[in-house]
User: Which sequence fits this backbone?
């Protein structure tokens, strides 16, 4: 699993760095990517307007093409950056000794994408408009999904051993159910523009996680 994350993360870094050659202004490029990423999370692929991005950055629309040859290339770049960040989180969180701590961190991190009920995870937003995406982005979305499922499966497998997550069935089925739950909870919170609905939807899953025991108490 770690090898998968590292390979993908290196690919993400290479893609971004390779597109920033020839002395192109890094600050403008990052501003374009940041605004585009926010637009995707709030409005999906169809809601990304290069005209609006140019206005928000304070540049001409033609200047965007200095950094990205097309809207698809821009979306690919921001999703690979996002994927690299999530994979770094998964790798770091995977160092936790207890499966329950890993799972709780995952639920909390996923909930941050909801903000005030006005946005969702980028992967969900892009999958909604999947038919309009370039095949390369679709492949990246699939790899992202598979990596999350693999990480969650390992987490539930550990939970079977350490007992920090209650009532675990088949780890693969648990992983799929968990991802479906957190994704669906985000969509519900977004539909009602109420971030508290995410917490309510994930309450039963969180209740299966046993509290952490301090090292001193455990001894």
Assistant:
């Amino acid at each position: 699993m770690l090898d998968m994350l590292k390979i993908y993360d290196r690919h993400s870094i290479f893609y971004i760095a390779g597109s920033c050659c020839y002395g192109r202004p890094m600050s403008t490029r990052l501003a374009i990517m940041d605004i585009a990423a926010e637009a995707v999370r709030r409005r999906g692929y169809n809601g990304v307007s290069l005209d609006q991005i140019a206005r928000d950055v304070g540049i001409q629309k033609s200047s965007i093409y200095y950094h990205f040859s097309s809207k698809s290339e821009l979306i690919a770049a921001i999703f690979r950056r996002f994927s690299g960040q999530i994979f770094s989180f998964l790798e770091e969180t995977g160092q936790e000794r207890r499966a329950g701590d890993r799972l709780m961190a995952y639920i909390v991190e996923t909930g941050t994408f909801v903000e005030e009920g006005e946005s969702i995870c980028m992967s969900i937003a892009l999958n909604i408009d999947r038919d309009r995406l370039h095949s390369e982005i679709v492949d990246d979305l699939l790899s992202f999904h598979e990596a999350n499922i693999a990480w969650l499966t390992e987490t539930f497998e550990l939970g079977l051993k350490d007992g920090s997550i209650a009532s675990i069935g088949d780890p693969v089925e648990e992983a799929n159910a968990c991802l479906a739950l957190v994704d669906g909870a985000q969509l519900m919170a977004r539909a009602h523009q109420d971030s508290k609905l995410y917490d309510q939807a994930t309450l039963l899953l969180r209740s299966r996680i046993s509290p952490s025991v301090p090292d001193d108490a455990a001894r």
